[in-house]
């Protein structure tokens, strides 16, 4: 099918872009493997402007989607396998057929970073997980561990502490990168144990994970019996399918200008996959808005978009 604008990604950046593009009367398709991306796995969002009470991540993204749909944006659950530009038209191959568009916004965020340890892939879904919100309830009264030192890892440990019998929080350094308020929430819980200056070296078991081998800063190895290992060490951009169309920084993030334009005319990028160092929902939404308005200008052949400042539209 043919569209004015194809948006790849269905989280804050992509959904906001869909809203603003649809309000400019662009024939817009938002395509994504799921709704909400990382945000949808976050049980509580406390810092999105306009909501005094905490919001569930998935519920917040559902609100974004409904608002974009109200103005005419179409949605499809599918996965992009390739993207190329032929003349003035972009052609995207998906597992649901080919899509053509005059402009494209990349907004598919980042994927969970893997530890790279022995047997990690073999036990993925068999004791190893990258999503506590998704899989945490499966480990009620079990022994678990979380790897990581940032907010995501500490929040994962907090969630697990409410269902698991034991939670080890394993971090390679002696101090957490997470905000102090998050660490304070779990440091005195009886079933949470900090394992610092330690790395996970390998995973073991038969049909399912039963233990991991760890190593501390002194080189001492230890066998740690576990039912579940949750890996929370950040995310990375997986953008090989556009490697010839965009530029990357040292972190493999997509480089854009101040209008979210990549090096390819008509191809924009927004959200966590860009070089903006602050990965927040509100920032992703803002970049999605910018990308949509810039895409509109591009499609109007340089005409400046009229910003929507009329009463009741903001």
Describe this structure in words.
- By secondary structure, the chain is of the alpha/beta class.
- It folds into two domains: 2-111 and 235-299, FAD/NAD(P)-binding domain; 114-231, FAD/NAD(P)-binding domain (3-Layer(bba) Sandwich).
- The protein is built from six helices and 17 strands.
- It has helices at 12-23, 57-70, 132-135, 151-161, 180-186, 281-299, and strands at residues 2-8, 28-32, 74-77, 80-86, 89-94, 97-106, 111-112, 128-129, 143-147, 166-170, 192-195, 198-205, 209-216, 221-225, 228-231, 235-236, 267-269.
- The strands form four sheets. Strands 1, 2, 3, 4, 5, 6 and 17 form a seven-stranded mixed beta sheet that branches. A five-stranded parallel beta sheet has the order 8-15-9-10-11, with helices on one face. Strands 12-13-14 form a three-stranded antiparallel beta sheet, with no helix packed on it.
- α1 links the parallel β1 (2-8) and β2.
- α1 (12-23) packs parallel to α2 (57-70).
- The longest helix is centred in the last third of the chain and has 19 residues, at 281-299.
- The relative contact order is 0.17.
- Mean pLDDT is 92; it is low at 304-314.
